[in-house]
Amino acid sequence: MSGTIGIVVSGGPAPGINAVICAAVIEACNRGHTIVGFQRGFRGAVEDGDASVRSLTIDQVTRIYNTGGSLIGLSRFNPFQYEENTKSFLELLARHNIDKLIVIGGEGSAWVSHKLSELLPSLRIAHIPKTIDNDIPLPNDQPTFGYETARSVGKHVVDILLTDAKSCERWYLVETMGRQAGFIALGTALSSGATLALIPEEFEDRLYTVHEVAEIIVSSMEMRHKQGKLYGVAMFAEGILDRLSPEGNEILSQCPRDELGRITYSEVELGDLLLPEIRKLCKKKNLPLTIRTKNLGYELRCADPIASDIEYGRFLGYGAIKSLLEQDGHFLITRTRGNLEHLPLSDLFEGDELSPRTINLNSDIYRMAKRYMVRAELPRS
């Protein structure tokens, strides 16, 4: 007897999730299979048990492909952190006869899929890479779904900020998401014409002080001021926080950190950390500038997907069902041009580590982006 297909969304939102769910449900039902979703992701599966299991039908999903968010919710939750959670989740799969599972998620969720494949080798798994950070390494530099929409929405917001900045003669310090990679910050800055962008990849040689980062931004402000322009937009990815030295900075030294020693981003915003130092430097340089901060993040994650992410998501949802029904194994589902690709999950990891995709500072796209910025170089040791 054929088992049931399960679908779970793990991690944070990204435009296109519902396009994946829509196509997966339609394809599964059209092939005569039962498909269910876990409401609230892995957290719901563990904490709510049977109540989290939701039957999905074509009528429920037929018009959700172009909407933001997730029909079945999501969560950042590791079902294998505690032994009792692992037991609860595996028993839930068994009770509902789930022998095939689609996991929609990013880098951390890919580890969960990989771990599940080791614990339950008989379970077929299709992992669909999802993150607006675009930091999952995919063949042929294929972006992760959600990134294109996030960049497009971000560009629209920064366009508005630039108009406001020019009209009101002020500067905006705009923080974007991107813990390990600066794709959102650089892509949005380049497509909107922001004054400058700073990304984590530029700060990997050592830890920098808040003062050093502030100096780079103030140098841009000074250059613009000499041109008679009292306005601009400076963009930076949140991951720069992890490249800052906590020594001598009360906020950084006391900021809560996770189990890996990384700053809990929800507790401190980079713009607010830089602003006092930037104002101090502006006063010293006699730059009479008005400066505001803006965190550009949550606006991007649940936006309605643009056409490319709708198409991409539907293709991956279809591909996940096709793969689960036609072959054994545990795969990450992606595409090369118009064709599906199945990468064994085990090939993505060295031990328990997945190396993120980052911006190559020697690439032509990065060099071109820097040529269109007004900014100074980083101080090197």
Task: Give the quaternary arrangement of the chains.
Answer: single chain
Overall morphology: elongated
Count of runs of 4 or more consecutive helical residues? 14
Rg over CA atoms, rounded to whole Å, is 22 Å
Query: What structural category characterises the helix and strand content?
Result: alpha/beta
Low-confidence stretches at least 5 residues in length (pLDDT < 50)? none
Kindly give the count of domains: 2
Q: If strands are numbered along the chain, what order do they take across the biggest sheet? A: 3-2-1-4-5-10-11
Strand content bin: 15-25%
Q: Whole-Å distance between the termini? A: 65 Å
Q: Determine and state the CATH class of the largest domain.
A: Alpha Beta
Mean pLDDT: 92
CATH architecture annotation name of the largest domain: 3-Layer(aba) Sandwich
Could you explain the architecture of this structure?
The protein is an alpha/beta fold and 381 residues long. The protein has helices at residues 17-30, 41-48, 58-61, 83-95, 107-119, 147-168, 183-192, 210-226, 250-254, 270-284, 298-301, 307-326, 345-348, 364-371, and strands spanning 4-9, 35-38, 53-55, 98-105, 124-129, 171-176, 196-198, 232-237, 291-296, 330-336, 339-344. The longest helix is centred in the middle third of the chain and has 22 residues, at 147-168. Helix 1 (17-30) runs parallel beside helix 12 (307-326), helix 2 (41-48) packs across helix 4 and helix 8 (210-226) crosses helix 10 (270-284). It folds into two domains: 4-146 and 305-348, Rossmann fold, CATH 3.40.50; 151-301 and 361-371, Rossmann fold, CATH 3.40.50.460. It has a seven-stranded mixed beta sheet with strand order 3-2-1-4-5-10-11, sandwiched between helices. The chain has 14 helices and eleven strands. 47% of the residues are buried.
